[in-house]
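[Structure tokenization] protein backbone as discrete codes

[Encoding] learned vocabulary of local backbone shapes

[Begin record] amino acids and matching fold tokens:

___
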Amino acid sequence: MNRTLVIMAKAPRLGAVKTRLAESFPPEAVTELYRCLLNDTIALAQTLHHVKIAMMCPASDVEDLSRVVAKTVPIVAQTGRGLAAGLASVFQHFAIPGHRGVIAFNSDSPHLPASVLEAAFDVVETCDLVVGPTHDGGYYLVGARASHPGLFSNDGMGTANALEALTARARELGLSVQLIDPFYDIDVASDLSQLADELQRSPGKAPRTAKWLSGRAGAGRK
């Protein structure tokens, strides 16, 4: 158990999660969707062999998030505010000597093949940093074997330049970086449509999310 997968999460509060989807769906529906994505992501993580699972969230979200996931996964409060601080906290907390790799993974990609996560753990044993890019210029995971102060910054975080900004900082720090398969996450309605098509064919990948999408088909949009 010297590999750790840390799911970056938030408490599913109205208006606080998947905010770009609120342009297409009522906030209550978006919040429920996030619950489904989060719990399906935990289920995906639990299929990995010999990997410790944990969650990282803002300190103010720990209590609410614990209720949502029914204490199935240990939850650690990040230090500082924002995603960059959360990512830095992951490696400061979990990347201890003797660990073969720590991967921070987003909470809305339960449709990612488990083999991709397993490959990321293998890759991070051969380089300083492994990154899973998204098609929109961001990244769905980042892994390392040590904490690298200054690697994460709020500049460009959550934008189409997020991956470019991360790899540029890695180069400045002299870190070797390897990218794995690109994938899509769920930020806007077109992402959700792609996910719906995928889960219609294979609902077992993310059963809670597939059920939510089936129930929302053709209804509930603004």
In short: The chain has a mean pLDDT of 91. The first helix runs from residue 27 to 45. The helical segments are 27-45, 62-68, 83-94, 114-124, 162-172, 189-201, 207-216. The first strand starts at residue 3 and ends at 8.
